[in-house]
C-alpha cells in the first residue's frame, strides 16, 4: 500500500473534496495542515506545489495537485467504490455537477458567503463585504437551489446512486451548514431533503464534525 499524504487545511473546499474521496474509498492517509496565505508553509509543500494552492497530494515520492486531478488519480488507482457510473452519459452528468460545484457553487457559498461571514476578519483582517453576503443569500443561492430542484428526481443527482456529483455538490453545501443557512423546504423540497440526506452520510457527518472542531480550535467560529 502506497503512503498517501494530503497537504491542505480546513476550511478549503477543494481539500474537503479530496478528504471525502479518501473517506469514501476507505483509504488511510496523513494530513499535513497547510494554509496557502500563511508565510509558514512546510518546505515539502513549497518545493512541490506548482501554484501554491491547496490541496497538494503525495503518493510515496510523487506529487500531484488540483482536487480534480487527485480525485481522477484515486479513481484509477483505487477503482473499488467508484465515484463515476459505468455508463458514459451518466459519468458525464456526474462530471458536470462536479464542475458546477467547483465553479458556480463554490464562488457563491465559499467566496461570497463563508469567506465574508467567517474569514474576512479572522484570516484577512478586514471588515466583511455585506453586499457579497446579500448577493449570495438573495440571488445566487436561490438560483442554485432552483436549478438543482429541477435536476433532482431521485435520492441522488445521477442514476440514483452516490457519485462524484453528490460528493462535490454536498462538499460545497457544507458551507451552508457552517453559515447556518437552511434550504427552505417549502420552496425547494427536493433540495432540502437532498442536503439532509447527503450530509447524514457517515463520510459527510465525520468531515463536518471535524471541520467544526478545527474552526473552533482556530477561533474562527
Ligand atoms: N482547481 C484547484 C483550486 C484550488 C484552490 O483554489 N485552492 C485555494 C483554497 S480553496 C487556494 O489554495 N488558494 C490560494 C491561492 O489562490 O493562492 C483545485 O481544485 O484544487
User: Helix and strand string, N-terminal first?
Assistant: EHEHEEHHHHHH
The CATH topology of the largest domain corresponds to Glutathione S-transferase Yfyf (Class Pi), Chain A, domain 2
**What gap, in angstroms, lies between the N and C termini?**
37 Å
Question: What share of residues are in beta strands?
Answer: 5-15%
Shape summary: globular
Q: Specify Rg, calculated over alpha carbons.
A: 17 Å
Total domain count: 2
CATH architecture of the largest domain: Up-down Bundle
What compounds sit in this structure? glutathione
The mean pLDDT is 96
- Report the count of strand segments: 4
Count of helix runs: 8
Strand order of the largest sheet: 2-1-3-4
**What structural class do the secondary elements suggest?**
alpha+beta
Low-confidence stretches: none
CATH class label of the largest domain: Mainly Alpha
- Considering DSSP H and I runs of 4 or more, what fraction of the residues is helical? 55-70%
Largest sheet properties: 4 strands, mixed
Domain GST N-terminal: 2-82
Protein name: Glutathione S-transferase family protein
InterPro entries: Glutathione-S-Trfase_C-like, Glutathione-S-Trfase_C_sf, Glutathione_S-Trfase, Glutathione_S-Trfase_N, GST_C, GST_Omega/HSP26, Thioredoxin-like_sf
Domain GST C-terminal: 87-220
